[in-house]
């Protein structure tokens, strides 16, 4: 009797563990995807300094709002967001990308990496929009990325 039950219990435990790992990976992927979906749904929203709602966003307001809708709480400013997460050496979709006036200064701008060299952000000149890391304005100001 026990010879029949033990293999069943072992298989059930292995399947349960396997499913929980997949579930955690899916959950991580889903909150990044959700944050990006929220940010993209706000394309064209005008820039508003201090803005944290779809009536107007500043850069960190857009990121904070988008991630909060995905269930992740972030600090309010780009500089404080830069203190969170883990440094991303290889950019992944959903990473936060940071910019500063100089490499020595703290970040003053943040966006969400979309993949293929693109990120979404709220800029004072275009509001919520998608641009590239190779953009002549953003490229020299790039200071790093964080995985949340």
UniProtKB/TrEMBL annotation:
One of its GO terms (molecular function) is cysteine-type peptidase activity. GO terms for biological process: proteolysis. Keywords: Hydrolase, Protease, Signal, Thiol protease. Residues 29-148 form the NlpC/P60 domain. PROSITE patterns: NLPC_P60. Residues 1-28 form the signal peptide. Belongs to the peptidase C40 family. PANTHER family: MUREIN DD-ENDOPEPTIDASE MEPH-RELATED (PTHR47053). This is Peptidase P60.
């Amino acid at each position: 009797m026990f010879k029949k039950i033990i293999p069943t219990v072992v298989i059930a435990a292995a399947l349960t563990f396997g499913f929980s790992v997949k579930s955690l990976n899916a959950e991580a992927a889903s909150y990044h995807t959700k944050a990006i979906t929220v940010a993209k749904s706000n394309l064209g929203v005008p820039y508003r300094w201090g803005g944290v709602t779809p009536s107007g966003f500043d850069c960190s307001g857009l990121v904070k709002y988008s991630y909060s809708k995905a269930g992740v709480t972030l600090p309010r400013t780009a500089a404080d967001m830069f203190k969170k997460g883990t440094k991303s050496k290889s950019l992944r979709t959903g990473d936060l990308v940071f910019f500063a006036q100089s490499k020595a200064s703290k970040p003053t701008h943040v966006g969400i990496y979309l993949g293929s060299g693109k990120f979404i952000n709220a800029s004072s000149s275009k509001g919520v929009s998608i641009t590239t890391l190779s953009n002549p304005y953003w490229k020299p100001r790039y200071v790093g990325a964080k995985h949340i």
